[in-house]
Design brief:
With about 120 residues, the protein is an alpha+beta fold. It has a single domain, classed as SH3 type barrels (Roll), CATH 2.30.30. Helices cover about 15% and strands about 30% of the residues. It has one helix and five strands, in the order αβββββ. The protein has a five-stranded antiparallel sheet with strand order 4-3-2-1-5, with no helix packed on it. The longest helix has 18 residues. The radius of gyration is 22 Å and the shape is extended. The N and C termini lie far apart (about 50 Å).
Length: about 120
Protein backbone atom coordinates (compact mmCIF):
# COMPACT_ATOMS: atom_id res chain seq x y z
CA UNK A 1 0.00 0.00 0.00
CA UNK A 2 1.35 3.43 -0.92
CA UNK A 3 1.02 6.56 1.19
CA UNK A 4 1.53 8.80 -1.83
CA UNK A 5 -1.22 11.39 -2.35
CA UNK A 6 -1.77 12.24 -5.99
CA UNK A 7 -3.31 15.61 -5.15
CA UNK A 8 -0.28 16.99 -3.30
CA UNK A 9 2.76 18.48 -4.98
CA UNK A 10 6.14 17.21 -3.84
CA UNK A 11 8.50 19.62 -2.14
CA UNK A 12 12.03 19.28 -3.48
CA UNK A 13 14.54 19.05 -0.64
CA UNK A 14 17.66 18.77 -2.79
CA UNK A 15 18.33 18.78 -6.51
CA UNK A 16 21.81 18.40 -7.98
CA UNK A 17 23.12 21.11 -10.24
CA UNK A 18 23.05 19.85 -13.86
CA UNK A 19 26.72 20.85 -14.30
CA UNK A 20 27.65 18.71 -11.27
CA UNK A 21 25.68 15.77 -12.64
CA UNK A 22 27.46 16.06 -15.99
CA UNK A 23 30.84 16.25 -14.22
CA UNK A 24 30.06 13.14 -12.12
CA UNK A 25 29.14 11.21 -15.26
CA UNK A 26 32.51 12.21 -16.72
CA UNK A 27 34.33 11.08 -13.57
CA UNK A 28 32.57 7.71 -13.69
CA UNK A 29 33.49 7.21 -17.36
CA UNK A 30 37.08 8.22 -16.63
CA UNK A 31 37.31 5.69 -13.77
CA UNK A 32 35.95 2.92 -15.98
CA UNK A 33 38.40 3.66 -18.80
CA UNK A 34 41.32 3.99 -16.37
CA UNK A 35 40.63 0.84 -14.32
CA UNK A 36 39.26 -1.60 -16.90
CA UNK A 37 42.72 -2.59 -18.25
CA UNK A 38 43.77 -3.43 -14.68
CA UNK A 39 41.09 -6.01 -13.87
CA UNK A 40 42.69 -8.90 -11.93
CA UNK A 41 45.69 -6.72 -10.96
CA UNK A 42 46.76 -6.03 -7.39
CA UNK A 43 46.09 -2.43 -6.34
CA UNK A 44 46.01 -0.14 -3.33
CA UNK A 45 42.86 1.96 -3.08
CA UNK A 46 42.48 5.04 -0.89
CA UNK A 47 39.01 6.41 -0.14
CA UNK A 48 37.92 9.97 0.61
CA UNK A 49 37.53 8.95 4.27
CA UNK A 50 41.24 8.09 4.45
CA UNK A 51 40.81 4.31 4.50
CA UNK A 52 43.29 2.24 2.48
CA UNK A 53 42.52 -1.19 1.04
CA UNK A 54 44.83 -3.57 -0.82
CA UNK A 55 43.47 -6.25 -3.09
CA UNK A 56 42.75 -7.36 -6.63
CA UNK A 57 40.24 -5.57 -8.85
CA UNK A 58 37.61 -8.28 -9.31
CA UNK A 59 35.16 -6.21 -11.35
CA UNK A 60 33.33 -2.94 -11.85
CA UNK A 61 29.82 -1.83 -12.62
CA UNK A 62 28.21 1.59 -13.00
CA UNK A 63 28.40 2.37 -9.27
CA UNK A 64 31.00 0.14 -7.59
CA UNK A 65 34.48 -1.28 -7.87
CA UNK A 66 34.72 -4.80 -6.45
CA UNK A 67 38.00 -5.44 -4.69
CA UNK A 68 38.98 -8.98 -3.69
CA UNK A 69 40.80 -8.75 -0.36
CA UNK A 70 42.42 -11.52 1.66
CA UNK A 71 41.22 -11.95 5.22
CA UNK A 72 43.78 -13.20 7.73
CA UNK A 73 43.41 -13.96 11.40
CA UNK A 74 45.18 -10.65 12.11
CA UNK A 75 42.49 -8.73 10.23
CA UNK A 76 39.97 -7.12 12.59
CA UNK A 77 36.72 -9.03 12.67
CA UNK A 78 34.44 -7.48 10.08
CA UNK A 79 34.00 -10.34 7.69
CA UNK A 80 32.31 -13.61 8.55
CA UNK A 81 33.89 -16.76 7.21
CA UNK A 82 31.27 -19.47 6.68
CA UNK A 83 34.08 -22.04 6.89
CA UNK A 84 35.18 -21.13 10.41
CA UNK A 85 34.74 -24.11 12.73
CA UNK A 86 34.32 -23.03 16.38
CA UNK A 87 34.03 -26.67 17.53
CA UNK A 88 36.00 -29.78 16.60
CA UNK A 89 34.75 -31.76 13.63
CA UNK A 90 32.80 -34.99 13.92
CA UNK A 91 34.55 -38.06 15.24
CA UNK A 92 35.35 -41.19 13.26
CA UNK A 93 33.70 -42.74 11.06
CA UNK A 94 32.56 -39.42 9.58
CA UNK A 95 34.89 -37.65 7.15
CA UNK A 96 36.31 -34.31 8.31
CA UNK A 97 34.78 -31.03 7.21
CA UNK A 98 36.41 -29.55 4.14
CA UNK A 99 38.73 -26.67 4.91
CA UNK A 100 38.20 -23.18 3.59
CA UNK A 101 38.57 -22.83 -0.15
CA UNK A 102 40.31 -19.51 0.35
CA UNK A 103 40.17 -16.53 2.67
CA UNK A 104 39.18 -14.01 0.01
CA UNK A 105 36.15 -11.76 0.26
CA UNK A 106 34.78 -9.20 -2.18
CA UNK A 107 34.71 -5.64 -0.89
CA UNK A 108 32.41 -3.31 -2.87
CA UNK A 109 33.74 0.26 -3.01
CA UNK A 110 31.56 3.13 -4.25
CA UNK A 111 33.24 4.78 -7.25
CA UNK A 112 32.57 8.33 -6.05
CA UNK A 113 34.28 7.58 -2.72
CA UNK A 114 37.62 6.65 -4.32
CA UNK A 115 40.46 9.12 -3.99
CA UNK A 116 43.43 7.21 -5.42
CA UNK A 117 44.11 3.82 -7.02
CA UNK A 118 47.69 2.63 -7.46
CA UNK A 119 49.26 -0.59 -8.72
CA UNK A 120 51.30 -2.58 -6.21
Amino acid sequence: MSTYNAGQTATVIYQADPAVVQHLHGVRESLHHSCKPYLNHKVRVQTLDGMTHEGIIAGMDSKNMYLMVTVTMDTPRGFYSPYYKPYPGPVYPYPPYPGPVNNNVILPLVLFELLAISLI
